[in-house]
Write a structure and sequence with these properties.
By secondary structure, this protein is an alpha/beta fold. Helices cover about 35% and strands about 25% of the residues. The termini are far apart. The chain binds 1-O-phosphono-alpha-D-glucopyranose and zinc ion.
Length: about 550
């Protein structure tokens, strides 16, 4: 039975860098999910006759939210919903399934790399027919509608059984429950040389992957162990759980502690890797060796010819402004297009659709290509495995040879967490006002060449986006400042530091970047304004 339910608006349903992301407790409030989803449906002119893709990373509230969304879709006249079995789907698979089925949109229920559980975070990523997350112009309209919503439509029906593959009906809507592994596995088999990687594992190559008890567990078991022949047990924390078994599914040196301990032990395997909650981020490790995401993007790009799926050529490459400049040198050497965009994967999508780029990446452990319109964690891991299988070189050797050829960008991100929102906004506004006066000034060893806001003019849709503030120094060092758009706890100030070096590749990263970190604090008056004398998180 169709119900029209009166509701009162929430005023905080604004999407951030990647969808709506909130505390689970916030999303559990009455009608919270319903308001947001109805606002989307209303903004896009309804969903009558449309097809959507739906699934999540399995975190707490996934099961409840997915039932609500299915019943709302049916009540709003949707024609068909393609749903991952047990309500699961990774972000990369969702993008693929959306494109393959020419669907009109999709939802991934995830707060990505944020912790899950009752006291953790929950989120909803909304993708359009392009397979990528909706552009800011659309999310702004959705936000406006969410502040005025008065009612939503929902079907009064029993819960749908999502364990059973195949087609069933909910009201007049068709629900197709799909095996979420197959479309993804097939896509990877088309791109990479699985035979070469199989041989690598058969030859005793030792590999370990941490899935943090999130959605990539089943993918990693199937691809790395069952198909490619890595020994059973190579995938750690492989069973999706509502609270990720207490783990924080963020693939970086701090949160992937179990993996990092293994990779820095004396008997370390040859390669280690991890993905985040919804499978779009990746971290790559060699024996006692960490590859920064910025370097990884540069290295993958430089080696594209080794991968069957790209051997006929790539269009170009893009990175977010905050990401290190390593890939810019590769693009120059290869003579391919090169773009710098604001932070957030959605900014890459127009460049991919218009065949300006094939690869792209962000410093925040995101790498991907135009095979989908999201970043792709397992894709990046397979890319590395493919390079290693073909060249016979180790992760460290590949990276060192890269530095020898192009120089090394020493690079680090400093996060100042939990700052009062008003204080953070004022800090950024005052800093922006002061930047034009900095050129020529010297701070410690660094002299400012130029400074200003990073403004991106999209060459495809003509939109203009301001994202972050950049200070360039005469020795090619850079500082980028921006406020996080994904946090759920006050404001997070991100400070990105980069120094370029052509000779000495064995400097201590922390020591080498500390003087620049100090300059960054000084220029933005971070200590005085926030009371923080050092960053809370270094990645
Ligand atoms: C963060 C990352 C950004 C990434 C986003 C979604 O956003 O910095 O690169 O696209 O998560 O995964 P931020 O919190 O910085 O806005
Ligand atoms: Zn993610």
């Amino acid at each position: 039975m169709l119900k029209i339910v009166p509701t009162t608006p929430y005023d905080d349903q604004k999407m951030g860098t990647a969808g709506l992301r909130k505390k689970s407790k916030t999303v559990e409030q009455p009608n919270y999910v319903e308001n947001f989803v109805q606002s989307i449906f209303d903004t896009i002119g309804g969903v009558e006759g449309k097809t959507f893709v739906l699934g999540g990373d399995g975190r707490y509230f996934n099961k409840i939210a997915i039932q609500k969304i299915m019943k709302m879709a049916a009540a709003n006249g949707m024609k068909k919903l393609i749903v991952g079995q047990d309500g699961l789907i990774s972000t990369p698979t969702s993008s693929r399934v959306l494109l393959d089925n020419k669907a009109d949109g999709g939802f991934v229920l995830t707060a990505s790399h944020n912790p899950g559980g009752k006291n953790g975070d929950f989120g909803i990523k909304y993708a359009t027919a392009t397979g990528g997350q909706c552009p800011t112009a659309v999310s702004d309209k959705i936000y406006e509608n969410s502040k005025n919503i008065r009612e939503y439509k929902i079907l009064d029906a029993p819960d749908v059984d999502l364990s059973r593959l195949g087609t069933q009906k909910l009201g007049n809507m068709e629900i197709e429950v799909i095996d979420y592994l197959t479309p993804y596995v097939e896509m990877m088999e088309e791109i990479f040389d699985f035979a070469a990687i199989k041989k690598l594992f058969a030859g005793g190559f030792r590999f370990v992957f941490d899935a943090f008890n999130a959605v990539t567990g089943p993918y990693a078991k199937k691809i790395f162990e069952d198909i490619l022949g890595a020994p059973q047990g190579s995938v750690l924390n492989a069973v999706p759980m509502e609270d990720f078994g207490g783990l924080h599914p963020d693939p970086n040196l701090i949160y992937a502690k179990q993996l990092v301990d293994i990779m820095y032990s004396d008997n370390a395997p040859d390669m280690g890797a991890a993905n985040d909650g919804d499978g779009d981020r990746n971290m790559i490790l060699g024996k006692k060796f960490f590859v920064t995401p910025s370097d990884s993007l540069a290295i993958l790009t430089d080696n594209y010819r080794l991968i069957p799926g790209y051997k006929n050529g790539i269009f170009g490459v893009a990175k977010s402004a905050a990401t290190s400049t390593a890939v810019s040198r590769v693009a120059k050497a290869l003579g391919i297009g090169y773009y710098e965009v604001p932070t957030g994967w959605k900014y890459f999508c127009n460049l991919m659709d218009s065949h300006r780029i094939t690869f792209c990446g962000e410093e925040s452990f995101g790498t991907g290509s135009s095979h989908i319109r999201e970043k792709d964690g397992i894709w990046a891991v397979l890319f590395w495995l493919n390079i290693i299988a073909v060249t016979g070189k180790s992760v460290e050797q590949i990276t060192r040879e890269h530095w020898a050829k192009y120089g090394r960008s020493y690079y680090m991100r400093n996060d100042y967490d939990g700052i009062d929102v008003a204080v953070a906004n004022k800090l950024m506004a005052d800093l922006e006002a002061k930047l034009p006066t900095l050129a020529g000034q010297t701070f410690g060893d660094f002299t400012v060449r130029s400074a200003g806001a990073f403004i991106y003019n999209d060459p495809v849709d003509g939109s203009s986006t301001k994202n972050g503030l950049v200070v360039y120094f005469t020795d090619n060092s850079r500082i980028v400042y921006r406020l996080s758009g994904t946090g759920t706890n006050g404001a997070t100030l991100r400070v990105y530091l980069e120094r370029f070096e052509t000779q000495d590749f064995d400097k201590n990263m922390l020591e080498f970047l500390e003087p620049l970190a100090e300059v960054a604090r000084q220029i933005a008056e971070i200590g005085m304004r926030t009371g923080k004398t050092k960053a809370d998180v270094l990645t």
